[in-house]
Specification:
271 residues, seven-stranded mixed sheet, alpha/beta, Rossmann fold, 7 strands
Length: 271
Amino acid sequence: MTRIDGPLLDARQPIDQRRTGAGQQHSEAFAALFDPTTFGHIERLGIGPGWRCWEVGAGGTSVVSWLAKRVGPTGRVLATDTDTSWQTRAARSPLEVRTHDVAADPPPVEGFDLVHARLVLVDVADRERALQSMLRALRPGGRLLVEEADLALQPLACPDEHGPAQELANRLRHAVRSLLAERGTDPAYGRRLPRLLREGGLRHVESDVHFPLTSPACAALETATLQHLRADLLAAGLATADDIDTHLTNAATGTLDLATPPLISTWGRKG
């Protein structure tokens, strides 16, 4: 799976949104919102020249490009995805891009110093198998970093619900959650990660939460999500066209304090 189909937006969509404007908007919003947090965690895990890294469900270039710079010419970065059309040019060493389904295909045989997945597992049909694949790919002493949103931990689009515009935003966020639940998304998966990593045999497991609130990237992600899910929300009777249009207009004013679901980052060491 790809992180672009993560729980902050849509799950199991038959239409590949990376071929739409919404897909590009999502990628840019994710990078703006979460790259600093992701990079900070990987820095603290000790990444350096010569590391071998596997980026699962890459979905874009921001993380893998950063990893490639950090590991240098003596390292290796493997970026996998079910659809690698997000590549803008042929990958060059130390970066390799490979088509791969973490929930269905055998894991790469290499022993990795770092395996990372962001906004991937919550939408995978066989989450247990996917996580086990990532664990098996680690070398002894290797680090796993998994980052997933938890929609149930903070379910509101506008935590400060003080008026009709905020109430509408929260109704639509609830509608999106209902749609995702129908498609098999686990809205509380993120909070389970510390336990799952310990049960997988990792040591020194730690976790924290990043909760973006009020930024242009939050508004951009909200807009791209509703534009992409509009037809599905209408077909399911979960929202009206007027509700969606009104909310998109409100979001464009920049006066809504829009929040994303909290991103739970969990990491541990093998052996």
